[in-house]
Specification:
This protein has about 400 residues and is mostly helical. About 80% of the residues lie in helices and about 0% in strands. Helix 10 packs parallel to helix 15 (about 385-410) and helix 12 crosses helix 13.
């Protein structure tokens, strides 16, 4: 009996939460009192259904639909423009939530209600995001839907090719992971828009692509001379966040490998963040010129990453079999020059399959990170103005020195 009343109380509370949100928006059809009544109606229908049949739930939902229709009849007769059906759909959903609260997992009901409350509350922000996303960006997001929900499920989950490592499903799953992570940063970037300061530009640039951010900022430092301290901060912070992104990829794909990677990556990240913050502190209140960012959900780059990842898997496997550790280090340098994601995922799989020890694995990732810093330093030297080149190369050099020290004296 105690659990029964507890569940009824939770259903009432969930209805009150949604009702309060609707009341604050002056919803015409239902508000602070009506929504708790709806969830209680759903809860009691679910209780009665246990003794009298599931038709009671369907009947309750149908009765609620008729009430909604009756509430909208005056508006329909006057011919006024309808404000939308958000409240109506929410009423039906909360009836179902109330019913499920009595028979299912409470965590599902509470999480669903929380998600509904957030969606309702963020209406201005979501509408603003929709307005900021142009046709090209929207098309790319639909392409991400194609990548994750259409292509991935139909790929064969079997091993093919030499060394027994090319699994189309698992390779494309990594593509979805990388594109999804980058897309999350890109959507946040679009939400912030012109309000993004130096911190937002650096952090989000690292999530989307630290290499693209470095090239963009370096190029603009010559085209639009400004404050080199801010540009230095954006580049160094983007590279620091890219190392955090590497750790995130390791943690998602091979969690037991993360502790071995955390210390060296954290040390290099800390140096970049510290030097970047020091540079920003010397800039005063100079405005931030946002770097250009391309939508990472385009289909062509996703396919190219998939092919690159498959190639890196083959190269790393061949190097490990024919040349041992020396071959793996060469492969890390070559692949790390332009892309950290593919080599990180490849090395993580080697560690997961017990083909290399964690001590060797984190060294391979650090070597790739140092090669990536060297490549970006070259881009800054080639494209950036003199003051920016000096500052960025010093920051990258300090991080690389920390990495080299850890390679020599770090734990096995």
């Amino acid at each position: 009996m105690t659990e029964l009343f507890s569940r009824l109380g939770i259903a009432l509370g969930l209805g009150l939460l949604i009702g309060l949100q609707r009341q604050r928006t002056d919803a015409r059809l239902a508000g602070f009192r009506t929504f708790p009544l709806i969830t209680l109606l759903g809860a009691l229908c679910a209780l009665l259904a246990q003794d009298f049949g599931q038709w009671i739930i369907a009947g309750g939902l149908g009765a609620l639909a008729l009430i909604i229709l009756g509430g909208n009849l005056p508006l329909m007769r006057t011919g006024e423009e309808h404000p939308g059906v958000t409240t109506e759909v929410t009423m039906l959903l909360m009836f179902v939530v109330g019913a499920y609260t009595m028979v299912g997992a409470l965590a599902v009901s509470i999480t669903t209600c929380g998600a509904v409350a957030v969606l309702l509350h963020l209406k201005p922000q979501l509408h603003s995001l929709a307005e900021k996303i142009g046709d090209r960006d929207f098309r790319a997001m639909m392409q991400f839907t194609l990548i994750s929900l259409v292509i991935l499920p139909v790929l064969p989950n079997h091993v093919y090719g030499p060394f027994g490592i090319l699994n189309p499903f698992k390779i494309w799953l990594m593509v979805v992971l990388i594109v999804g992570l980058s897309l999350g940063g890109y959507v946040t970037y679009k939400l912030i828009g012109v309000r993004a300061g130096a911190w937002a530009s650096g952090v989000l640039g690292g999530l989307i692509s630290s290499t693209a951010t470095t090239v963009s900022v370096a190029r603009r430092s010559r085209q639009v001379p400004g404050n080199p301290e801010v540009a230095t901060f954006v580049i160094l912070m983007a590279s620091a966040v890219s190392l955090l992104r590497v750790g995130l990829l390791v943690g998602v794909t091979v969690p037991p490998f993360l502790p071995a990677v955390a210390l060296p990556l954290g040390a290099m990240l800390g140096v970049l963040a510290l030097l970047g913050s020091w540079s920003l502190s010397r800039s005063g209140n100079a405005p931030t010129d946002q770097p250009d960012q391309a939508n990472p959900a385009e289909l062509k780059p996703a396919v190219m990453f998939g092919l690159l990842y498959a190639l890196i898997l083959l190269v790393v496997a061949a190097a490990n079999q024919h040349f041992g550790k020396q071959g793996l280090y060469v492969a890390s340098v070559i692949s790390g020059l332009t892309d950290m994601d593919a080599i990180t995922l490849s090395v993580s799989q080697l560690v997961k399959n017990l083909e290399v020890a964690p001590g060797t694995g984190w060294r391979l990732i650090v070597v790739a990170a140092m090669a990536n810093l060297a490549f970006k330093a070259g881009m800054v030297v080639a494209l950036g103005e003199k003051s920016l080149r000096r500052r960025v190369c010093f920051g990258f050099g300090a991080a690389a020195a920390i990495g080299a020290t850890l390679l020599i004296f770090g734990p096995p």
